[in-house]
Write a structure and sequence with these properties.
With about 850 residues, this protein is α/β, with parallel strands linked by helices. The chain is about 35% helix and about 20% strand. Pfam families: DEAD, Helicase_C, PriA_3primeBD, PriA_C, Zn_ribbon_PriA. This is Replication restart protein PriA. Belongs to the helicase family. PriA subfamily.
């Protein structure tokens, strides 16, 4: 930035220069906006810094923007407005990040402002609040109503009031917006926007003795003087017990947390206030980090011979390859290998990013990593508050955190010296963002980020994605395999339970086969733990009338409502719509309204009936909404307080529990027969991963029971034998035959409109234009998706398949965007929205 300014100053040495800044604004518009830099801010505005700017008609909105470029060329299409304020003394967004924003906008067919909006934690984006103040030029009191006159009198007593504060003055039931509109119309008040930054540092109020009393002699004089004021003397004595000033006067400068004195019942708060007023104590505030700074490394990791061999092999392959796949079976100790590589990277002076697919997984792994790295490690995920995420962001900028562990949004952190990125469980679909734009895949973004910073990428998984394994087999990625479980533990014994046969013999207990029921019973007798997997939350997927077949459906979406027993409601998992549970059928009035199917909540309920003495916990989206819910559930299960953990796919990913010897899997057939070309791969990954939670302790083989209506399915046989390579060979041939990834790139275009005919018309037009240019073999659709209406919008999907080696993908994307723009500017189709999902899953 300084070099850029020096060049500009040298060029225009003899004349006064007006600078302009191209800014990224967090709005879905495909261009930057040019603003004028006020002369007084010329030295303050820097590339990568945040600024506040007015936006919209009559400058009605206030926005946070990022400076992307500085120059001295005014815009030709409009009059440049002035930047209002500079927020940062030093840039909080690096050059690498700006490059990443631009690349993501182009690659994922969205706007750079949309990338910025997702990338920056909301705590780094300012907010504005409307304020009302008395207009000193108001000269027409006769225009006011009696109530307005009273309100204006109160308003004169304050510099300004918010709408909320004004509402309290006006009283309950008052129409505040109408009242303000009336006063503005009479020019009695002025409405303005007060801009404030959302991030608020955590402040600690402290007290300390005045410097006059730090020396021993003055302190004795003070205590003697307070002999007749015992309560005040006790405050001073209590402070000295915590802060031994007489032994070391320098300790006094750090002071004492005021809450420590306030919590003491023997301390008179009025006495403390008096001592402050009389100059004996002084109060001050300090910024307190929200993350503990007292952690220190406690554990030294020792690798086994085969882990050491894997680590050395990875480092050797990094000499030739920038990306290496670590294919290690569940329980093989991949985390210890990661830790060894992280230590080597940090020792070389570079930064490390460790990506995990789920917050649930961070809760357990973070504890293990903190024992090794202490407070050198930052943690970044969506369950943290805005303020906590801002502190991690600023900690990366300042160099406080050289190592960060987090979920997919961590790729946006302001790294500028990355040496290593680890993508654990790289196959996981959680790395893909679906809404809002950018619809990015964190694994792929991480690779691009590493490319720019010349860092290495390690992809780890027991069940790699076919695309990743294919690249490794071609030699484009390095490949290291780890097929021995840690500590000589063995892979679990996987058994198939025929539910059709159990039903015929009437052995089923609701959703539980007799085999699973007996295994759970025996497991609890041995004081061992069990995990049950059902990839559907709620109590039942739908409610239905036995007499007329009426089904409870969402008013806004073409899906059934899921029954949640604990909240006694029917809920849509797409739009959040809720209905009360009907006592009778709304269609025919019958009382025979029953729940159909089962979810995790129903399994939890049945377990508590079957095993009344058992301790059951459920881990799904409904039970983990609170900030620390994941951590609490995992801690309770890990400590042995829980016998059975029931959960959705979040329990399948990398969790490590020594005492789990049984895993039960429900509804495996639904996973296998899902209508998607990746269904077989996904079923193998999910069932293998959840099976890997069993028997992770040496000397005890775990058991996995998969309930299925068809035990002869080939995919189940591959899961039993852990035959990933057999799965790969079959699936990769099918992908090649039908031109699916990794042999092509997929772009899904979803057309949406509240009118089905309009949506269909726009989708057909887009598909026809694309087919004319690209050919019918590359364009599939339009067709209605499985859920054809969401939030009262009718959906049509078009799938574009582009060969990796024969077609210019960038040109195709540009052509698709042109055709989309044509439709969106058509008068009859302007209300249509078209969503592009590049590399869709």
């Amino acid at each position: 930035m300084e070099d850029q300014l020096n060049t500009l100053f040298a060029t225009f040495d003899s004349e006064e220069v007006t600078f302009f800044a191209d800014l990224i604004l967090p709005i879905p518009v495909p261009r930057l906006f040019t603003y004028r830099v006020p002369r007084g801010m010329a030295d303050l505005v820097k590339i990568g810094a945040r600024v506040i700017v007015p936006f919209g008609k009559n400058n009605s909105r206030v926005m946070t923007a990022i400076v992307a470029r500085l120059h001295n060329s005014p815009p030709t299409a409009y009059q440049a407005r002035y930047i209002s304020e500079v927020l940062d003394e030093y840039p909080l967004v690096t050059g690498y990040q700006l490059e990443l924003f631009r690349w993501m906008a182009e690659y994922y067919m969205c706007c750079v402002g949309e990338v910025m909006n997702v990338a920056l934690p909301s705590g780094l984006k300012i907010s504005s609040q409307s304020k009302v103040q008395y207009n000193p030029d108001f000269d027409y009191p006769e225009l006011l109503t009696e109530f307005e006159e009273v309100l204006l009198t109160e308003l004169k007593k304050h510099p300004a009031l918010s709408y909320e504060e004004l509402g309290r003055l006006a009283g309950e039931g008052s129409n505040v917006p109408a009242l303000i509109k009336s006063l503005v119309g009479k020019k009695a008040v002025i409405v303005f926007e007060e801009v404030r930054e959302k991030y608020i540092p955590k402040m600690i109020r402290k007290v300390r003795l005045h410097t006059n009393y730090e020396e021993r002699e003055q302190l004795l004089v003070l205590l003697n003087r307070l002999e007749k004021l015992p309560k005040q003397q006790e405050v001073v004595m209590r402070y000295l017990r915590h802060v031994p000033v007489q032994m070391n006067p320098s300790l006094n400068q750090k002071g004492l947390d005021k809450t420590i004195l306030n919590q003491d019942d023997e301390i008179s708060q009025s006495s403390l206030t008096t001592l402050v007023k009389n100059g004996v104590f002084e109060t001050f505030e300090i910024i307190q980090p929200r993350f503990s700074d007292t952690l220190s490394p406690q554990v030294e990791i020792k690798l086994t011979d085969y882990q050491r061999s894997a680590s050395e092999n990875i480092m050797k392959q990094f000499e030739q390859q920038n990306i290496v796949l670590l294919h290690g079976i569940t329980g093989s100790g991949k985390t210890e290998v990661y830790i060894d590589l992280i230590q080597q990277a940090l020792a070389s002076g570079t930064q490390v990013l460790y990506l995990l697919p789920e917050i649930a997984l961070t809760a357990q792994i973070v504890v293990r990593l903190q024992r090794v790295f202490g407070d050198k490690m930052g943690i970044y995920h969506s369950k943290f508050s805005d303020n906590e995420r801002v502190e991690v962001w600023k900690g990366v900028v300042s160099g406080q955190y050289q190592f960060v562990v987090g979920v997919r949004s961590s790729v946006f952190l302001p790294f500028d010296n990355l040496g290593l990125i680890i993508v654990d469980e790289e196959h996981e679909t959680s790395y893909k963002q679906h809404d809002p734009a950018p619809r990015y895949h964190a694994r792929d973004v991480a690779m691009m980020l590493a490319h720019w910073q010349q860092a290495k990428v390690l992809l780890g998984s027991a069940t790699p994605s076919l695309e990743t394994y294919y690249q490794a087999k071609l030699g484009r990625y390095g490949l290291v395999e780890l097929f021995q479980r840690f500590g000589d533990a063995t892979l679990p014994n996987i058994l198939l339970v025929n539910t059709q046969q159990e039903k015929r013999q009437k052995l089923m207990k609701h959703e539980f086969s007799s085999v699973l029921y007996t295994a759970l019973e025996m497991n609890m007798e041995r004081k061992e733990q069990s995990i049950l997997f059902q990839n559907r939350r709620g109590y039942s997927p739908y409610m239905q009338c036995e007499d007329c077949d009426w089904t409870a459906e969402c008013n806004n979406c073409a899906v059934s409502l899921t029954y949640h027993q604990r909240d006694a409601e029917l809920r849509c998992h797409y739009c959040g719509h809720k209905d009360p549970v009907p006592r009778t059928c709304p269609a025919c009035g019958s009382t025979k309204v029953r729940t159909i199917g089962f979810g995790t909540e129903k399994l939890e309920d049945q377990l508590q009936i079957f095993f009344p003495g058992s301790r059951v916990l459920r881990m799904d989206l409904d039970t983990t909404r609170a900030k620390n819910a994941y951590q609490q559930i995992i801690q309770e299960f890990e400590s042995g307080q829980v016998d059975i953990l029931v959960g959705t796919q979040m329990i399948t990913k990398g969790l490590d529990f020594d005492n789990v010897s049984l895993v039960g899997i429900f509804d495996a057939d639904r996973l296998i027969h899902f209508p998607d070309f990746r269904a077989t791969e996904r079923a193998f990954q999910m069932l293998t991963q959840v099976s890997g939670r069993a028997g992770r302790r040496a000397g005890r083989q775990g058991t996995v029971l998969i309930q299925t209506a068809n035990p002869q399915q080939p995919i189940l046989q591959k899961i039993i034998t852990n035959d990933y390579k057999g799965l790969f060979e079959e699936e990769i041939q099918e992908r090649q035959d039908f031109n699916y990834p990794p042999f092509s790139r997929l772009i899904k275009l979803t057309v949406r409109h509240t009118d089905k005919i309009t949506s269909s018309k726009a989708a057909q037009r887009l598909a026809d234009e694309l087919t004319d240019a690209l050919g019918s073999s590359r364009v599939l659709g339009p067709e209605e998706p499985l859920v054809e209406r969401i939030r009262n919008q009718f959906l049509f999907d078009i799938l574009v398949k582009i060969e990796r080696d024969k077609v210019n993908v960038k040109a195709v994307k540009s052509y698709i965007q042109e055709r989309i723009n044509d439709i969106l500017t058509d008068k009859g189709l302007r209300q249509v929205s078209i969503i592009a999902d590049v590399d869709c899953l």
